[in-house]
Amino acid sequence: MRLWHKMLQEKASAVTDECMSRVQTSVETDLLPDQSQQGLSSASAIPSSSEPEQSIENIKVILHERELWKKFHEVGTEMIITKAGRRMFPSYKVKVTRMNPKTKYILLIDIVPADDHRYKFCDNKWMVAGKAEPAMPGRLYVHPDSPATGAHWMRQLVSFQKLKLTNNHLDPFGHIILNSMHKYQPRLHIVKADENNAFGSKNTAYCTHVFHETAFISVTSYQNHKITQLKIENNPFAKGFRGSEEGDLRVSRLQGKEFPVISKNMVRQRLISSHSHLAGRLGAGVLAGHSQVLSSYQYETGFPLPNSDPQDPTSNQFPQSRDPSLLYHCFKHRDNGRHLELGCKRSYLETSSAGTEEHYFRSAPSYESSLLSHPYCAEGISSREACMYGSMETESGAGAGDTDDMANSPSINCNVWATVPPYPRYSVEGIAYQPFTAHFTSAATHSPVVPHPTTSMVPRSQGDLGVYNSASVQRDLSVIHPSSSSSSCSPVVPGSRDRSGHPSLYHKKPESPLRPHRDFSAYPTQGSISIRDPLCQYQVELNSAGSHWTDS
DNA sequence: TCTGCTAACACATTTGAAAAGG
DNA sequence: ACCTTTTCAAATGTGTTAGCAG
């Protein structure tokens, strides 16, 4: 952690003292009564007296369908990840207010590890099963409407429902890559577009909002039957699995039987439930109790109750990004009873430790700064689908669990776009921000990690998808703070320029129209990235020594 | 044997183009 | 000719399941 802190300081070296002094690090969970009644969770930054009323830290974000999220969260949200990519459900939707109606903003989401553990579903509970796998490339999902004016964002719900999760490390579609059986925390970033409708320059202000009820464990198949039932009950696409009250009639219908059939998963779940339930209450006679439990649907929740605060911030210290390579993508895209073993070391609940929101906010490092250290340009964006930015950059030597340094870190939360490489040892080379279809070879030259899809690989235009890998996303944004919701913001640091003299690393021409349907593309502009070609994927490799997730 | 992953499957919803109507 | 509404097929999203692999 000390190394991590040092690196942050190095990163901040390019930032003026004035900038540092103006850093807005404190954020506040703000759940308004009326919003609570609406089932909305809001997160807003503490307003800065020196900032205009509609400055970025005043933006309020309300999580849509918060009650539904809480339902899942109380049971232990699981999100299916597949090779082809799977949507999240509940989908991430927010209501944004207090934006400057005329200012243009870019909304994006990233999903960062919530801790450095690998989990397994044991005894109907999520338990730590070991150390986490190396983090996947930290991709960002940029809302397809970005950039858009505050009036646009506030007009209606902002939906990220088309965000997809995958476990394919070589995913060519720009989906967010996750490891199965790991816990993750989605985060929303609101970035103020600069004068060029871009962000990435030093003077880019942004804020980050985290709703802890959106945390989830990624799985390739559902582990907790309660989650399955919640999904079936609430997801329209799963209506086909809604049977009668028993919920199994469809299964029997599919199998041409006249009686309900208990699926394997349900049997597993019920056995697990009965095992734990009876073991706890009866201590014996498990077999005798099975039939009763099978019919009574008594399940134990795998996640701790809300009050137990499984997303405790102090439990979320974990190494940051692990892979040195940085990738930019942008291309168009059409869019068991076996768990009864008792070898679990400690429960998922136990991995959390007590912590306060105050602690979280005060100790929050500047993990956003590097997220924004890579260029984004929405020029030419014309896709209804989102752009995704990802990073495979990693940090070696950064350890998990060093909470003290984190808590004691002074104003390192300088939320401005880095104008120099986040870390001296990293450098962007071999700029490959070229239309994928036209510069395949060139891009491939610089990107040995992610395969370069040809146009033939791209499904028909169900969605135009841009993928951007943001350096340091994993590294600097990985520590999740478990308040009911939280946010952190930054002020604008005016007058800054990137190394190439451009006002920003990512930019969009001011005249670029805002359309409902957009195509995303990116192109290099002397070290900056912009988006132009709807059928492209861009990759940039950071020149950095390989790093590994270490415990140091 | 245990555990996790994948592909195929059936069903429901969404999407978008074509047809119909005003 | 233009616009709106309706229709319908294809695409997409979903959980389940059997089988495979380490």
TrEMBL record:
It comes from Channa argus (Northern snakehead). It comes from the Eukaryota. Residues 508-520 have a biased composition (Basic and acidic residues). Keywords: DNA-binding, Nucleus, Transcription, Transcription regulation. Residues 30-40, 308-320 have a biased composition (Polar residues). It is found in: Cytoplasm; Nucleus. GO terms for molecular function: DNA-binding transcription factor activity, RNA polymerase II-specific; RNA polymerase II cis-regulatory region sequence-specific DNA binding. One of its GO terms (cellular component) is cytoplasm. Residues 41-52, 480-495 have a biased composition (Low complexity). The keyword Nucleus applies. The keyword Heme does not apply. Its main location: cytoplasm. SMART domains: TBOX. Residues 30-52, 301-320, 480-526 are annotated as: Disordered. Residues 63-243 form the T-box domain. InterPro entries: p53-like_TF_DNA-bd_sf (IPR008967), T-box_DNA-bd (IPR046360), T-box_sf (IPR036960), TF_T-box (IPR001699), TF_T-box_CS (IPR018186). Pfam families: T-box. This is T-box transcription factor TBX4.
